[in-house]
């Protein structure tokens, strides 16, 4: 049976369009001990601060839009269980539009530039194409990426080096394995800073979809050394 608890949340507030410096506003929220971080944020918005800017869509860990940092760790707000004391901030290193909402324009532009759909050497045959079941299962698993940017926000290499981030490596690896894709994805991975990865596995540890962007980087590095392409 759930118990009633009171959560203390310090929320970063800032509207760059209005100038001024970012600051933290303290709130207390009472609810059940199974509350998620998103429940706390919504309660603050509905009961205490109607001008708080935040974002969510599905509430079931599938859209990736509610990602924030809680006590310095990037998480999906709808999946992360609340803590007695929390400092809630927008994802870094993305530009802040207001409060907890970040500008994803650069992310979307980068995805478009990478052409993350099969680049065919010949036209589609107009009928279903055969595929090895094991490969199909692996591709479906890789395609579970939410594009939430939790891994990018957590990555120490992104903060220190010219590295686009783990999410882009995962997407490129997905296409590198796709049998209908004829593009050479290794040069794209190199251009995106693949060699700058520290191999710390933080991205894998924090991924809400239980994926391993770090393994995608390792697979690209293995391909670079041994020259093996598609299976």
Report on this model:
- The chain folds into two domains: about 5-100, Beta-grasp domain (Ubiquitin-like (UB roll)), CATH 3.10.20; about 105-225, Alpha-helical ferredoxin (Fumarate Reductase Iron-sulfur Protein, Chain B, domain 2), CATH 1.10.1060.
- It contains nine helices and seven strands, in the order E-E-H-E-E-E-E-E-H-H-H-H-H-H-H-H.
- It has helices spanning about 35-45, 105-115, 135-140, 150-155, 155-160, 165-175, 185-190, 200-205, 215-225, and strands at about 5-15, 25-30, 65-70, 75, 85-90, 95-100, 100.
- Strands 2-1-5-3-4 form a five-stranded mixed beta sheet. A two-stranded antiparallel ribbon has the order 6-7.
- A hairpin with a 2-residue loop joins strand 6 and strand 7.
- Helix 6 (about 165-175) packs antiparallel against helix 7 (about 185-190) and helix 6 (about 165-175) crosses helix 9 (about 215-225).
Read across the widest sheet, the strand sequence of neighbours is: 2-1-5-3-4
- Do you know the CATH topology of the largest domain? Fumarate Reductase Iron-sulfur Protein, Chain B, domain 2
Largest sheet: 5 strands, mixed
Order of helices and strands: EEHEEEEEHHHHHHHH
| CATH architecture assignment name of the largest domain | Orthogonal Bundle
How many E strands?
7
Assign the CATH class of the largest domain: Mainly Alpha
* Assigned CATH superfamily of the largest domain: Alpha-helical ferredoxin
Q: Report low-confidence residues grouped into runs of 5 or more.
A: none
Domains counted in the coordinates: how many? 2
Mean pLDDT: 95
Radius of gyration based on Cα positions: 20 Å
Give the N-terminus to C-terminus distance in angstroms: 50 Å
* Assembly state: single chain
Structural class assignment: alpha+beta
Determine the strand fraction and express it as a percent band: 15-25%
Taken from the alpha-carbon principal axes, the silhouette is elongated
List the total number of helices: 9
């Amino acid at each position: 049976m759930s118990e009633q608890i009171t959560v203390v949340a310090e929320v970063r507030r800032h509207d760059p369009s209005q100038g001024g410096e970012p600051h933290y506003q303290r709130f207390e929220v009472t609810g059940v001990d199974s509350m998620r971080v998103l429940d706390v944020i919504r309660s603050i918005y509905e009961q205490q601060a109607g001008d708080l800017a935040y974002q969510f869509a599905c509430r079931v860990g599938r859209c990736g839009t509610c990602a924030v940092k809680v006590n310095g760790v990037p998480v999906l707000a709808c999946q992360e269980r609340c803590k007695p004391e929390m400092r809630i901030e927008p994802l870094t290193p993305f530009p802040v539009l207001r409060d907890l909402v970040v500008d994803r324009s650069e992310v979307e532009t980068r995805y478009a530039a990478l052409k993350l759909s099969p680049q065919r050497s010949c036209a589609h045959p107009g009928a279903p194409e055969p595929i090895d079941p094991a490969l199909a299962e692996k591709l479906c698993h890789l395609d579970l990426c939410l594009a939430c940017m939790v891994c990018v926000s957590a990555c120490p290499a992104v903060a220190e080096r010219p590295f686009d981030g783990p999410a882009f490596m995962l997407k490129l690896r997905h296409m590198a394995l796709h049998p209908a894709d004829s593009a050479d994805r290794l040069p794209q991975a190199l251009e995106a800073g693949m060699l700058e990865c520290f191999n710390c596995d933080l991205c894998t540890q924090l991924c809400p979809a239980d994926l391993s962007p770090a393994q995608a980087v390792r697979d690209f590095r293995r391909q670079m050394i041994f020259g093996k392409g598609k299976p």
